[in-house]
Amino acid sequence: MSNRYLWLVLGIFFGYLAVQALFTGESVGFGSSNTAGRDISYTENSIEFTLMTVFEICTSIDFLKSFLSSK
Length: 71
What we know:
Blueprint: H1 3-24, E1 26-30, E2 37-41, H2 46-69
Antiparallel strand pairs: 1-2
């Protein structure tokens, strides 16, 4: 599998995470010392939720741009 398809898969995955976060109000966050990952709710921590959602959108766009520019 070439890198081109890896960029496509990662772009779709991060896009899915961002859209899911916008519709459900919960985003996937980085883990704490006790867990591998955790959910971030907009009502519990709106700043962290917003930052993670923007990160997911920007990462998705970057991966999809890499997919489109690679040959």
